[in-house]
Design a protein that fits this description.
Belongs to the RlpA family. Lytic transglycosylase with a strong preference for naked glycan strands that lack stem peptides. The chain is mostly beta strands. The chain has a domain at 9-112: RlpA-like domain (Barwin-like endoglucanases), CATH 2.40.40.10. The protein is 8% helix and 26% strand. The protein has two helices and eight strands. The strands form two sheets. It has a six-stranded mixed β-barrel with strand order 1-5-2-4-3-6.
């Protein structure tokens, strides 16, 4: 990926690590399942779906990844990579390396096939419910709820019924 100097770029410098195998198959913050075999990464600050270029500062190798999760939550680390991305950067042996992360500000986010951004989500469906049997409308067009009982309700734990409580007031 070649980035022109005129194109606005966000740059993070810091340490990168890669996900443990334990996370393979678990859900990411974007909703898709994490796979060690994809070129993906986690960032605390970059938007989900962003394409970023990660460069290993020690050997100059680079890889383009898609941000699909949040993290890392270790001080000094700026990105967590999938194992496939870590292999591309030749950092498997070291585990943690110094990197430069470049994100274009004009790039359109990439989303999994089964997910879409919230702005494009369909409007919620609203169902019309039939009126309750026995419900009568009060003059405002809103049906009144039917009364459950016309007899005093006992509250044995309080030691008094509704009627006795009303008489006491």
């Amino acid at each position: 990926m070649t980035v022109s100097k005129a194109e606005p770029v966000l740059v993070h410098k810091g340490k990168a690590s890669y996900y443990a195998d334990f996370f393979d198959g678990r859900r990411t913050a974007s909703g898709e399942r994490f796979s060690q075999r994809k070129l993906t990464a986690a960032s605390r600050t970059l938007p989900l779906g962003s394409r970023v270029l990660v460069t290993n500062a020690d050997n100059g190798r680079s890889v383009e990844v898609v941000i699909n999760d949040r993290g890392p939550y270790v001080k000094g680390r700026v990105i967590d990579l999938s194992k496939m991305a870590a292999r591309e950067l030749d950092m498997i042996e070291e585990g943690v390396v110094n990197v430069r992360v470049e994100a274009r500000t004009d790039s359109k986010p990439v989303f999994p096939r089964n997910r879409r951004p919230r702005e494009e989500a369909p409007a919620p469906m609203v169902a019309e419910l039939p009126p309750l049997p026995g419900a009568e409308e009060a003059g405002d067009g809103v049906p009144a709820l039917p009364v459950a009982a016309d007899f005093p309700i006992e509250f044995p734990e309080l030691g008094a019924s509704e009627d006795r409580m009303a008489e006491a007031q």
